[in-house]
Amino acid sequence: MKKIILSLLACICANFIVAQLQYSPSAQILFNKSKSSTVRIKGDGQEKYIPATIITSDATALEQYGIKVGTQVGNYATALIPTSVIPMLNGIDAISYIDAGNLAHTTLDVALPGIGYQQILESYTASRFMGKGVIVGIVDIGFQWNHIAFCNADGSTRILAAWNQNDTTGTSPEPYSYGSLYDTEEEILAAAPCPGEIHGTHVASIAAGSAIENIPYGGIAREASLILVDAMHTDEGGIFNEGIIDGIKFIFDYAEKLDMPCVINLSIGGNMGPHDGTSAFDIFCDSLQGPGRLIVGAMGNSGDEYYHLGHDFDTQEKEVRAGLRQYGGLPEIDGWSKEPVQYGIELYHGHTDTVLDWTGWIPLDTLYENTLKYFDREIMVEAASQIYPENDCYNTHIAVSGIRNLGNAYFALRIKGESGKVNVWCNTPATEFSTRGFEGWLGGDFEMTLNEVGGTGKRITSVGSYTSDSQKATLDYSSTHPVNDISPFSSRGYTADGRMKPEVCAPGCIITAAYNEKLAADPENFFNGLVENRYEINGVTYYYGANSGTSMAAPIVTGTYALWLQAEPTLTPEQAKEVLKLTATQDSYTSNPATSGYGKINTYAGLNLILDRNNIESPTNNTATTIYPNAGNGIFNLVCQEAASEVELHIYTSSGMLIASTTLQDVASNTPIRLQIPSAQQGIYYITVCADWGRCTHKFIKL
């Protein structure tokens, strides 16, 4: 093993600990020439740029160095840094911190009845709320801009504007310096479909797809206007956080110009970060939201993958080892702790516990590189550490590279600390923690598997998935997940700082929606085999197919929020979450808030609540009793946590009229009592339960 303390980027890295300018660990590794992932901007010749997030005291001062500034929130700014400027960064007084190298990835016929959508269509009042006058924004990749799902019945587009951040042929939207803006009907309908993915088309169709002619796959907000952003990404599909943030700001600014409420969907996510709401991405998202400005994100699809490892050095061993099981990729590790923690990577051959080579303990005070020897082949391990200023945690990032065919090689992570707790995440699905069958090794857990992008923000609404369908007619597309149960792949909360995530779950397993023709029409492409139906309209074939994931669940909530914003255009993120809390459907599958949040989205019940009440009130503390379900045909079960000789129950309408009272005798603890709302009218009812242990009030939505 050859150990190298890098001199590369010496002018930047030599003073990481003492200089004013600091770099996140991922930025340190990215700026290493062997790991640089750069983009080209049109009009700049051969100059290459690195997308980055900067903490700066003066964003305008950066322009003299050729740094292109995008979105600004407080002292945070997204930027494109020319690679030629990297050696000068340490001398720019206006910069105090740089984060870079974080990539996100892409993560209704049967789905709609389960969220109360049929009741909306059949209701004279509710059916008027289809998202008209509201903007649904989608930041994703893989759009077919002219798909019939985004058109009106006369063929005109419902897309107000589209920004392809990866195209270099058109004019960039101000104030951004990259991509092409399409903001006329002619440009939008003529723009070529984006290659490589069906994801963005599918997601946008679920949130706000049109119900055209005999196509049964209309989305939720069928009359909403659309703004779509194909986010800046690598050839492999990794999406730059900076492009996502710029896309969010672009959509909200466009909505502001038109004075329209707006909800944005992020069905994309990444694993690396603090998972406590303090990442630069979460700070941007929290700051950009407000009245009539909502963001919905996907929780992630790692609920059944061991990609998180938690350890407490105060109560457990001071030194531990965890295997890293590779699934066609190389390990990438992100560790967070309040106290210093040391890490090392071990290399093994075959199913043995004999170490072939290892990095040694990685120092915490410098960018550093190890070359591990796997017989006659070299494997590079790059690592860096830094204290993150927003949460004062030690962050260590480790990346393995330089080899493709691993053969029988595998890795393990060694961790050593004296006190405190550590949380470590790996780059699932390429890697997950595993004991590999060895006694004393750690194997990871299913906790805190939520996305860093979309799942951890304090104001963002994060969405998990439940299964509404288990099989499609398409080739080999079926699921063994029980219908109505939480999808096993749906990532789990809570956050690292103890907040409940997700807030709600929605149908996300085998959802049929629009497909990008670029992939659907190709018989050699995987998604061609998942096409559910083809429709020819005016000589053009449009494709619809199945897909699964929290990526499909999130746009159902996004479309729901669009309906709610039509009813209440100044709805805030906090008020929207309160509506979820009061109206989400609870059943036997939603007992764990770490997988289901408040329960399953009920679009109809939430719309009724907003229409029926001028303000959103918090319910009484209901720890003494529960009711389930809290929406349905009027039949529900009451469970008292404590026994009581006598329990009074009163049922009121939403206007406060008492319609029923009863007294229950000798009520046992934790024993369901079957009851019914004695009214034929749909709407909201209040159920008050009184006993010697207190008083509780619950809301019930009669469908």
Structural account:
By secondary structure, the protein is α+β, with helices and mostly antiparallel strands. Helix content is 16%, strand content 34%. It has 13 helices and 40 strands. The strands form 8 sheets. The protein has an 8-stranded mixed sheet with strand order 11-10-12-9-14-16-28-29, sandwiched between helices. A hairpin with a 7-residue loop joins strand 3 and strand 4.
Short description:
The chain has 703 residues and is an alpha+beta fold.
Give the tally of β-strands: 40
- Fraction of residues in H or I helices: 10-25%
Shape type? globular
What ranges have pLDDT less than 50 throughout 5 or more consecutive residues?
1-19, 614-619
Radius of gyration: 26 Å
| Average pLDDT | 87
CATH architecture of the largest domain: 3-Layer(aba) Sandwich
The number of helical runs is 13
CATH superfamily of the largest domain: Peptidase S8/S53 domain
For the record, the count of structural domains works out to: 4
Strand content: 25-35%
Oligomeric state, counting identical vs distinct chains: single chain
**Main beta sheet strand tally, sense and closure:** 8 strands, mixed
**How does the helix and strand content classify structurally?**
alpha+beta
